[in-house]
Write a structure and sequence with these properties.
The chain is α+β, with helices and mostly antiparallel strands. 51% of the residues lie in helices and 14% in strands. It is globular, with a radius of gyration of 15 Å.
């Protein structure tokens, strides 16, 4: 992930592979992940606990992670996999504290701060 901030210290994240570079506004300044996490930690903006499924999917798409999440869900086995696929297909919201969200974040190697950034970005969509 590449992180950017605007003049008001609002943070945006984009995939490092450059696939979403055309979405990066010219008024954004690239910053390190540690600076992004530091700004997020001192920000008065609360991380949303719930976003709509549309917002979640769009944020994942914008970050270049949607296909990875869908593949991870498709690859889950047993009852938990069946339940995950049902939830992914029919849920109208995504909760930050949901066990499936934590499982997918771990499978994708996301830190808690990166997951918070995704939820924050999703809420803005």
């Amino acid at each position: 992930m590449r992180f950017f901030k605007d003049i008001s210290n609002n943070i945006s994240a984009y995939p490092a592979d450059g696939s979403q570079d055309h979405f990066i506004s010219t008024d954004l300044v690239e910053i390190s992940e540690s600076e992004a996490m530091s700004i997020a930690a001192t920000s008065n903006v609360a991380v949303p606990s719930v976003v709509s499924m549309r917002q979640a999917r769009r944020a994942l798409y914008d970050a270049g992670m949607l296909s990875n999440v869908e593949a991870a869900i498709a690859g889950m086995s047993g009852v938990d996999g069946d339940k995950a696929r049902i939830d992914w297909a029919t849920a109208t919201t995504v909760e930050r504290g949901n066990a499936l969200v934590a499982s997918l974040a771990a499978a994708l190697g996301l830190t808690g701060a990166q997951l918070d950034a995704l939820f924050t970005q999703a809420a803005a969509l």
